[in-house]
Design brief:
Helix content is about 45%, strand content about 15%. The protein is an alpha/beta fold.
Length: about 375
């Protein structure tokens, strides 16, 4: 921030898109300090306050962020010794939102602002109300700066984007889009086709798959793994997923998980590092367990059919004990692929559902 004074941007940021970023970047460059307030009532599916706050923190760490819902607002009120107050709904009139923001700045944030930045028609009237409120208390006047109101620089619509998040992913920063990429995990005993299936599914989806690092390390070390290698395998597998998730489309296909590495640690050494045990709890949006009902193929790296059956029983026991929902894939390779695609289609949330835009929110 290189300007002077305190700026204010108010928006839903559901999701935070490049139009919002143009607005926020302009405000941040023009002001010494920037206050960003985000609220929407009701919430949009998959865009909870915690997620919106994470996006803003990732992209605007220097700003003062106030991402609210009724519970968060009530907590701020208690901290300030105020009577609890609720957010105005998205369908409330302009004045209700303006008066709420004036109260929020005065009583909760406890800051005056110099400039309101917006890309909407509500901006001038909003700034006028804040100016009047501040000047009644002997404070400063509030100016308004409009940023790309015609959407010429960044032609984006929040409503249209919510209806097709994946089709318009170029309107989202990587830090934002990665949240909408689901992780599907493929697990199963040796010679159940999961690595081939992971590659096939990624190709069918036009997406990416996180390859199995444990197999690569095993081959690089001529089949000699030490106990410490297991934690390294799990950490590297997670790092791979994190690195490519934002580049995937809709689904990131994960060939194995840290739970698999935990299984090998127990099988090979009879114990597991505490950090590995913690990584084994990593959540996935969908878990697909490949059944051992196809012929066992010995490729020179696998143990035997008895170990494959032990692995399958271990997975069944662990998944049930951890209360992890999963789908089993059985039958031919084609049947497994079809079952996996159907499971992903059923698990994909409807991200097109949306509520009417807030009268004060930047779209």
């Amino acid at each position: 921030m290189s300007g002077s004074g305190t700026g204010l941007v108010v928006g839903k940021f559901c999701p935070l898109h490049r139009g919002h970023q143009l607005l926020l970047d302009h405000a941040q460059a023009a002001c010494a300090q920037l206050i960003v307030v985000s609220y929407t009532k009701p919430e949009f599916p998959g865009m909870a306050p915690e997620q919106r706050e994470a996006w803003l923190q990732a992209l605007y760490p220097a700003a003062s962020l106030w991402v609210l819902d009724d519970a968060r607002l009530a907590a701020h009120c208690r901290q300030c010794g105020l009577a609890s107050r609720r957010l105005p709904g998205n369908d409330a009139g302009d004045d209700a939102h303006r008066q709420f923001m004036a109260w929020l700045l005065r009583e909760v944030i406890q800051r005056e602002v110099d400039i309101v930045f917006s890309s909407e028609d509500y901006g001038p009237g909003f700034a006028a109300v804040l100016s009047q409120q501040q000047q009644l208390r002997g404070g400063r006047a509030v100016a308004h700066v409009s940023v790309d109101p015609a959407r010429a620089a960044v032609p984006v619509s929040g409503t249209a984007l919510r209806a097709d998040l994946h089709g318009q992913r170029d309107q989202l920063a990587a830090e934002v889009y990665r949240h909408f990429v689901r992780r599907v995990a493929l697990i199963g005993g040796e010679s159940t086709g999961k690595s081939t299936l992971a590659r096939t599914l990624a190709e069918r989806l036009g997406s990416l798959h996180a390859a199995e690092y444990g197999r690569e390390l095993w081959e690089a070390q001529d089949g000699q793994l030490q106990e410490a290698d297991l934690l390294h395998i799990a950490q590297t597998q997670v790092a791979r997923e994190e690195q490519i998730q934002a580049s995937a489309t809709r689904w990131l296909v994960c060939d194995t998980t840290p739970l698999t590495t935990l299984m090998y640690a127990e099988a090979m050494f009879g114990r597991a590092d505490l950090l590995l045990q913690a990584l084994a709890a990593r959540p996935y949006d969908l878990v697909l367990l490949c059944d051992p009902d196809v012929p066992f193929v010995q490729d020179g790296t696998r143990r035997d059919e008895a170990f494959r059956q032990w692995q399958h029983a271990w997975y069944l026991r662990e998944l049930d004990a951890r209360q992890i929902p999963y789908r089993q894939l059985s039958g031919s390779w084609q049947q497994r692929e079809a079952l996996a695609m159907a499971a992903m289609a059923a698990a994909q949330p409807d991200e097109s559902r949306a509520t009417p835009p807030s009268l004060v929110a930047a779209q």
